[in-house]
Amino acid sequence: MSQPSAPLPYDDKNPLYPPPPGGYPPPPHYAGGYPQPGGYPMAAGYAQPGGYPAPGGYPHPGMAMPTMPMRFGDNGLGDGSHFQSVDWDDRKVRHTFIRKVYAIISLQLLLTVGIISVFTFVHPVRSFVQRNVAIYYASYAVFLVTYLVLACCQGPRRRFPWNIILLSIFTLAMGLMTGTIASMYDTKAVLIAMLITAIVAIIVTIFCFQTKARRGMHPALPSVGQVDFTSCPGLFCVLGIVVMVTGIITAIVLSFKYVPWLHMLYAAIGAIAFTLFLAYDTQLVLGNRKNTLSPEEYIYGALTIYTDIIYIFTFILQIVGRD
After folding, report:
1. What sign has the CA pseudo-torsion 105, 110, 116, 119?
2. To the nearest 5 percent, what fractions of the chain are helix, strand and coil?
3. Where in or outside the cell is it found (predicted)?
4. Which of 313, 293, 274, 310 is nearest to 100 (CA)?
5. Considering the domain boundaries, does residue 81 fall inside one?
């Protein structure tokens, strides 16, 4: 028997059972659904043939989202740094820090001026100091040791009362050393040098107070026309090396033969350099710059500014009292 090449029309498929009038009723509803024409039921747990998981269904290989933000040390700078790359926003904390620093500096300068006055105006003391140069070397040794401890060791610098004790010893040693130097010069030259130093310190401080950062922007960004000395610490490191090398050369040359112009050149370089150092350290204390001191470093801030002022005085004294 030959097979038909095409199916019979629908009406002729089963002539014994013709379709009822109006067509067949829809099949009853069964839970789970029915196979679509030409397809198969969706089996639970199997993906569609040829399909892929929806975006986000599987994690990418080798990737994992952290559950907490990563931190590196304290504020990203570690425990040993006394600098901050971002200024503290609390004005009350900053103002308290500034007042504390300048209160300490005022006491240091009062003590130093008192020692210089005694060594300069009280003739028996002045004669005794001039005859006993060992006072200068002893005070210089104490000054150097205490300075290195306070500048390099964070523990003693931040731990009360050791920081106050060390700073007091440092100030006393610095005052004795400066008073010994002043006793070698004429009284008029000492007074002129003190006056010039005070004027320079006041001008630098006012300049640093007046130059504020932009309002409404990042505090580290300088305003138009402002000079941010804290943004170039490498330049000040080079400047310090230049002053040190110049001082060594001057000391060696003057030990063999006194050269007035070389002595004056070294004093002028030192006075200019420490005036710039004073501006740099003052901006570190005031904040609103690229770098600023931590609010816990009030001893370090007072130490650096006080040292800058005293060095400015000694260099100006060498220029004024050159005769």
Report:
1. negative
2. 60, 0, 40
3. Membrane
4. 293
5. no
Token output for 106: 């005022």
CA of 196: how far to CAs of 72, 104, 180, 202, 310, in Å?
46, 22, 19, 10, 12
Q: What is the pLDDT of residue 275?
A: 93
**pLDDT score, position 212:** 53
What is the Cα Rg of the chain in Å? 41
Residues in the chain with pLDDT values less than 70: 1-90, 211-226, 288-289, 323
Q: Tell me the CA end-to-end span of the chain in Å, nearest whole number.
A: 141
pLDDT given for residue 36 in this prediction: 52
Query: In this structure, how many other beta carbons lie within 10 angstroms of the beta carbon of residue 71?
Result: 8
Q: Which helix (H) or strand (E) holds 293?
A: strand 292-293
pLDDT in tens, 172-217: 999 999 999 999 998 899 999 999 999 999 999 888 877 554 443 4
Which two three-digit tokens encode residue 319? 């220029």
- In this structure, are residues 305 and 313 in contact, taking their beta carbons and an 8 Å threshold? no
List of residues 6+ apart from 113 with CB closer than 8 A: 194
pLDDT (tens digit per residue) in 294-317: 778 888 989 999 999 999 999 999
Q: What angle do helix axes 162-183 and 91-121 make, rounded to 10 degrees?
A: 40
Find all residues with CB under 8 Å of 60, minimum gap 6, and list them: none
Indicate whether 78 belongs to any domain. no
Total tally of structural domains belonging to the chain: 1
Whether 27 is covered by a domain: the verdict is: no
The answer to the question of residue 40 being in a domain is no
The whole-angstrom separation of Cα 201 and Cα 193 is: 12
The residue to which tokens 């009038």 are assigned = 21
